[in-house]
Specification:
The protein has twelve helices and 13 strands. Helix 9 runs parallel beside helix 10.
Length: 302
């Protein structure tokens, strides 16, 4: 059977996509090989968000192109955010690539790989919101912790951010689906769940008309085997009192908040289309400290 290599770059959300790609290939008879020597195709799941990530993706593509020229790698398939954002440029500037595939095609990646191996050049760019949000995963994290992607896409429209154009609007995964997936992860040995999305704190609004993150945390805490729950990508304007109360009362929920503040100047925040001014950000941090005195706060600034 065909041997496939995988390079996955970028954020944990992209990593979960890669895990679903690997599971689909494995389920359909492909052999996953962590060595590129002699593989029938290598899939590069790229990031294209910031310049450093784009450069890393291009370097990996060029490295595989060199291996292809040397006869070590037979076919190159590029998917992920860079493929979604720069699809035409990639294909024209790196002719060694055999397929450029949008994230919306991940659900039929097995068919695409077969077409490429059989000699077809593939350019498949469906709507990005066709990206599967559920499905089996071949985990690439240590067995004791796993990511749980609770949503994809983003509707915040920060002026500096390309995520909505790459990933589409915010889409939550159904509540019951997440509980089932988390239960399966726990049964497989996961002790720590790391909740991820472009905006974790917005979970549920698109499906249920209201934020359901606190309710989701309560339900996840009921799962036997899960000992820690950590959240990434929590937006300041959605750090509600209900969320903080849930974090304070649930011993499984770690007092850890990944809070992208981005800037502290009111004029810049407004130009970024960020909700809330610098005073509001300070107030949010004060509320976190009051509810969770020992909280660890991680942030990013531009």
């Amino acid at each position: 059977m065909y041997k496939i290599g995988m390079i996955s770059l970028g954020c944990p959300k992209n990593q979960v996509d890669a895990e679903r790609i690997l599971a689909k290939l494995d389920r359909n008879g492909f052999t996953i090989d962590d060595c590129y020597d002699g593989v029938d195709a290598v899939i590069i799941n790229t990031c294209g968000f910031i310049d450093a990530a784009k450069q890393e993706a291009i370097e990996n593509i060029l490295e595989m192109a060199q291996l292809k020229e040397e006869g070590i790698v037979k076919k190159i398939i590029v998917t992920g955010c860079l493929a979604e954002r720069y699809k035409d440029e990639i294909l024209s500037e790196i002719p060694e690539i055999d397929a450029v595939v949008g994230i919306g095609a991940n659900g039929r990646i097995d068919e695409i790989v077969k077409r490429v191996i059989n000699g077809e050049n593939v350019y498949d760019m469906p709507c990005n919101e066709e990206l599967p949000l559920v499905g089996e995963r071949l985990l690439t994290t240590p067995e004791y912790w796993s990511y749980l992607k609770i949503a994809d896409g983003c509707s915040n429209r920060c002026t500096y951010c390309a995520i909505p154009s790459i990933r589409g609007n915010y889409r939550s995964v159904e509540f019951e689906t997440l509980i089932n997936e988390a239960s399966q992860l726990a049964a497989a040995g996961t002790k720590e769940l790391v909740l991820i999305a472009q905006d974790t704190t917005n979970y549920g609004v698109d499906l249920y008309g209201r934020i359901r993150l606190p309710e989701l945390l309560d339900a996840l805490c009921e799962i036997d085997g899960i000992e820690w729950i950590r959240m990434l990508y929590c937006y300041p304007d959605k750090i509600t009192d209900e969320l903080l109360e849930t974090m304070a009362k649930q011993p499984k929920v770690l007092p850890y908040i990944d809070l992208p503040l981005q800037h502290g100047d009111d004029k810049i925040l407004k130009a970024m289309n960020r909700r809330g001014d610098s005073a509001y950000l300070r107030e949010t941090i004060a509320r976190i400290r009051k509810a969770l005195p020992d909280a660890v706060i991680r942030t990013t600034f531009i």
